[in-house]
Amino acid sequence: MRALRLDHPRPAAERPLTVARVDDPSPAAGELLIDVAACAVCRTDLQIAEGDLPARRLPIVPGHQAVGRVAALGAGVAGWTPGDRVGVGWLGGACGDCAFCRDGRENLCADAVFTGWDRDGGFAERMVARADFALRLPDGFADVDAAPLLCGGVIGYRALRVSGVRPGGRLGLFGFGASALIAIQVARHWGCEVFVWTRSAAERARAAELGAAWTGGYDDRAPAPLDAAVTFAPSGDVVVAALRAVDRGGTVAINAIHLDRVPEFPYELLWGERVIRSVANFTRSDAQAFLTLAAVAGIRTAVERHPLDGANEALRRISDGTVSGAAVLVV
Ligand SMILES: [Zn+2]
Ligand SMILES: [Zn+2]
Questions:
Q1: Which of 6, 195, 205, 327 is the most exposed place for a label (fewest CB within 10 A)?
Q2: 105 alpha carbon – ligand 2 mean position (Å)
């Protein structure tokens, strides 16, 4: 089979992924073998490919938003049948035994493993995944449209929950990439008033189309204090801008696995029981709740299709900020 392999992280412009011909993986006990149909490309894939997020294993096949069909079952797998549609996300496994896992917070498990970082991911024709971490996908989404729901969508949903925004509340979104495109639809479904900050005029127009009450650039002041905010840009300056915009008691949820730095800021910005909280991937329960909601709420994803061997181009477009919506490799 063909797989896109990362041997040595380097800048996206230097085409860090190479097309490799490798043997099909075989599913170990408890694993599914999956024929990949589509895999979305995430900023985290770019950060791994470029080395901003240090590789945990090399070579590695990136990709953690895969949609496909179950091709074969490893020993002991129950509940899945060959041919079932399946999704694979970033959280590839956890110990199942620590205090966090037992509490349903497997996203905080110290032994959690991640798809496309610890385990080979979905930039390939076939992959294996732990059956107990594989996700069931609702009908109503084509494979390419379901793929971006599996990282940006699920984590955006967890970020909304972590932000504490309530139905009808006033929410700020800082940055408007693939994850925010989905988060705004969930927030609008909940009846929230949504304010969007982004550098890009095209993204501001897109946010307005999706029901944003107000849009602006990072230097623009919020027209009214926010109940909650979610930051998507991998920039600490944006976190401080969000903190400046939230009202007393409001939370800024940081939806970024990597931040350039957290700049110094005056304590008055945090005073008044404001909270800054990171969002660390997602739990299976978030994923299934979000996927069900996405079907009910009619969440739509804007996708830019690339062939499997066009993954370097997709990474470069994410790096340049020229990708429109979510880049998806169609396998
Ligand atoms: Zn991701
Ligand atoms: Zn654990």
A1: 205
A2: 8
